[in-house]
Specification:
Blueprint lengths: L5 E3 L21 E11 L1 H9 L6 H6 L4 E2 L5 E8 L2
Parallel strand pairs: 2-4
Antiparallel strand pairs: 1-2, 3-4
Length: 83
């Protein structure tokens, strides 16, 4: 595996952004690579982080980019607020 990957803790089925802010064991961090960045308007981003389990068009359109590759690297989307 490439030692240059960043690592992150992945939460199964988080409901809100607060579910992602909890402490986690360092040993559970996974290597990841951002395959696409999606910029949302302020209102769309706030709506997204208020309920992460709702189906979103930008996730559906890009879900084929996401996977765990043969090296164990999690290929992910980065969703952020524009500006």
């Amino acid at each position: 595996m490439n030692d240059f990957y960043s690592t992150a803790f992945f939460v199964r089925r988080p409901f809100t952004i607060e579910d992602l802010r909890k402490p986690h064991p360092h040993k559970e961090e996974k290597p990841f690579a951002v395959v696409k960045t999606i910029g949302l308007s302020k209102i769309d981003y706030e709506n997204f982080i208020a309920d992460l389990c709702v189906d979103r068009w930008f996730i559906e359109e890009n879900k084929q980019l996401c996977c765990i590759d043969t090296n164990g690297v999690w290929r992910c989307l980065l969703v952020r607020r524009r500006g």
